[in-house]
Amino acid sequence: MKKELYILGLCFLVIAGCSQQKEVGAKLPESKEAKQLMQGIWIDDESEELVFRVKGDSVFYPDTISMPAYFRIYDDSLYISSSRYEIVKQSPNLFWFKNLNGDMLKLRKSTEASDEQFFGKQKTRILQATEATRKDTVVFLDGKKYHCYIDINPTKYKIEHPSYNSSGVEVNNIYYDNIIHLSVYEGARKLYSRDVRKQAFDMVPKDFLEQAVLGDMVFHHADQQGFHFLATLCIPDGASCYQIETIISHAGAMTMQLLEY
Questions:
Q1: Band of the pLDDT at 158, cuts 50, 70, 90?
Q2: Who's near 194: CB < 8 A, 6+ residues apart?
Q3: Residue 6, exposed/middle/buried by CB under 10 A (0-12, 13-18, 19+)?
Q4: How far apart are CA 31 and CA 227, in angstroms?
Q5: Is-above-0.85 flag for pTM?
Q6: Is the pLDDT of residue 191 over 90?
Q7: Which of 69, 67, 98 minimizes the C-alpha distance to 81?
Q8: Identical fold between 31-119 and 127-258
Q9: What band does 123 get if pLDDT is binned at 50, 70 and 90?
Q10: Counting Cβ atoms within 10 Å, is residue 128 exposed (0-12), middle (13-18) or buried (19+)?
C-alpha cells in the first residue's frame, strides 16, 4: 500500500538534479565571446521552428506562457535557468547543442526581421489552474440536516513550475494557486468555516508541495467521525498528485491524512 496517489518518483529526481545544476551554473565564470555569438533569434534547422531569442543575458521564448530565463556559457556548456546543455558546435550563425534528452539540436541564426514580432513586448501569461467554483452539499445524518459548502477561489499567489518545450529545453511556467473555503453547518449553527491553503497539507513532501496547486476538494461522506472531504494537490500539466482526506468532526475540529491505496 502506498501513501502516494500515482506519484512519479522520477519527477523528484529531475527537480533535484536541476537544482544542483543551477547552483553550479551560477558560480561559473562566463565566456563573453560565446555569449556575444548567442545574441539573436535562433531557428531549428530541421523543423524551421523558432526556438528562442537571446538578448543580453536572457533567453526569450516564442510563446506567452514561458518565462524569460537567465543564461550563461562556460567552457563547453550552456546554462539556462536550472539546466545544463552540452555545446557541440558554435559559430556566428550556427549553434548545436544537446537537449536534456540527449538529442542534438541544430540551430541557425535567423536573418528575417519579421521573426522579431514573435518576441514582442507581450506580457507573459500566468495560467489559472481552475475557475471560482462553489459546491453545496446537503447531508442528513441521525435525523439532522447539514450543509457543506466548498468554495474554490483563485488567487494571485504564483507557483513556478519547470517543464520542457518541444525542443527539449527547460522552461518555467507560472501558475496561480487556489484557496478553498470550507464550511459545515448544522441548520443555522456553524460547525466549521475557514480558508484552507495548500500549506495546511504539511504531510505532503515539501519539494512537491512547493510546486503543487491546490486544485480541488469534494465532499465524500459523513459518519459518526465527522464530515469527510477529499482534497487534491497536483503539479500542473503532470500526472503527479496527492489526495488528502480532510475530516471535520462534529465538534468542529479538522484532521487530515494521506489516503492509502
A1: confident
A2: 181, 182, 183, 254
A3: exposed
A4: 61
A5: no
A6: yes
A7: 69
A8: yes
A9: low
A10: middle
Instruction: Pick the more confident residue, 197 or 26.
Output: 197
Decide: residue 181, CB within 10 A, 0-12 exposed, 13-18 middle, 19+ buried. Answer: middle
Task: Outline where DSSP puts E strands in 2-143.
Answer: 40-44, 50-55, 58-60, 69-74, 77-80, 83-90, 94-98, 104-109, 127-128, 133-141
CA dihedral 79, 9, 243, 210 (to 10 degrees): -30
The CATH number of domain 127-258, selected from 2.40.50.140, 2.40.128.510, 3.40.50.720, 3.40.1440.10: 2.40.128.510
Domain 31-119 has CATH 2.20.25: no
Instruction: Return the minimum-mean-pLDDT range out of 22-26, 51-55, 130-134, 198-202.
Output: 22-26
CA distances from residue 193 to 16, 43, 72 in whole angstroms, order as listed: 38, 54, 50
Q: Which single residue is written with the C-alpha cell 462553489?
A: 134
- Report d(CA 29, CA 51) in Å as an integer: 25
Q: How many alpha carbons fall within 13 Å on the CB side of residue 201?
A: 32
- pLDDT at position 16, please? 39
> For 159-186, how does the pLDDT look when each residue is reduced to its tens digit (9 = 90+)?
877 777 878 888 888 888 999 999 999 9
Look at residue 163 in the predicted model and tell me its pLDDT: 77
Q: Roughly how many angstroms between the first and final C-alpha of the chain, as a whole number?
A: 5
Q: How many CB atoms lie within 10 A of CB 224?
A: 8
- At 212, which helix (H) or strand (E)? none
Q: Which three cell numbers stand for residue 227?
A: 464530515
- For the chain, give every domain's residue range: 31-119, 127-258
